[in-house]
């Protein structure tokens, strides 16, 4: 009994490490590639980069390259930044006065189109990273191929009420083509309660049926519940799922398609949330992302890599939101500058940055509140 009590603290520390480590590894890779996008395009256009930081706050370790850029790791690993020589801060607000040293290679003196490309390069790098990850998985592991033929119809389900029968091949749902049975749940997940058209092939004939999708609660994979739409069909695949490896071109195309599916699904969710059809409790912060990362790492490294791709897309998309402080906010400013023929005044930009900071902090606090509520509501 005594030896067990001595080992308990070590076991707790190990569990904590296994909880945090996958999250830190995944987020560090995603943040690095995001900032690398800004950095690479800035260097291409001759902008001098003062610092490249993974994490915020006091520097833990760092070095200076031959171009004078300080590469460093901060103690708070929840993001990162690239600071240009004429930036006033890590949010890339322009310095009020440029030193003579900053005149050469200044970011804010570059043409508007170059500044816009430098800013957009961060989210674009996240999307490219996701496409590369997905493409690698599709070429090395393959894609599951499961013909969308109905084996069973759940009694008293939306599918049964609409007249879908065993043996029907589902061609499309709500205008979206269905090529694999696994796509059905993805398509209907965010359409709970909606009336959709389901096209099926039956006995050589094509039929269009109207289905009012149901709603049910499912496990979110980390001990909680989430509401999704369902059709009520199943497939009994004898011999399991067949994985088909793709050639490089097909893999890249499928990787781009998977990336776009995440973007479109996220936008649909946000729209449904705004109009009140989806709950806001699905907005996750760092705690729940760490939980998901830990679960993924326990399952397999492939699941963790796939999660990295999904998170990379999400972070790239969030950064494109037109909120000052984020890349999308800078692009919004540049759009206004293009229309006006001159940039917004320093005071207007400062007000925008403060509003953006408040919005970002509010969103982070709300997401963290969701995480804590979710954590303590687990059985």
Outline the fold blueprint.
Blueprint: H1 2-44, E1 49-64, E2 70-84, H2 100-103, H3 112-140, E3 143-145, E4 152-153, H4 158-162, E5 169-173, E6 176-177, H5 182-188, E7 195-202, E8 205-212, E9 214-219, E10 225-230, E11 233-234, E12 242-244, H6 248-274, H7 286-299, H8 301-319, H9 327-340, H10 346-377
Distance between the termini: 28 Å
- The H-and-E topology, N to C, reads as HEEHHEEHEEHEEEEEEHHHHH
Helix and strand content put the structural class at alpha+beta
Percentage of β-strand residues = 15-25%
Strand order, largest beta sheet: 6-5-7-8
Number of strands: 12
Regions with pLDDT < 50 over 5+ consecutive residues? 1-11
Rg, Å, rounded: 24 Å
Q: List the domain count as a whole number.
A: 3
Number of helices: 10
Compute the average pLDDT.
83
Q: What's the main sheet like?
A: 4 strands, antiparallel
Describe the protein's architecture and organization:
The protein is α+β, with helices and mostly antiparallel strands. It folds into 3 domains: 1-26 and 113-141 and 248-379, no CATH class; 46-109, no CATH class; 143-244, PDZ domain (Pdz3 Domain, Roll), CATH 2.30.42.10. The protein contains 10 helices and 12 strands. It has helices at residues 2-44, 100-103, 112-140, 158-162, 182-188, 248-274, 286-299, 301-319, 327-340, 346-377, and strands spanning 49-64, 70-84, 143-145, 152-153, 169-173, 176-177, 195-202, 205-212, 214-219, 225-230, 233-234, 242-244. The strands form 5 sheets. A 4-stranded antiparallel β-sheet has the order 6-5-7-8. It has a two-stranded antiparallel ribbon with strand order 1-2. α3 (112-140) packs antiparallel against α9 and α7 packs antiparallel against α8. The model is unreliable at 1-11 (pLDDT under 50).
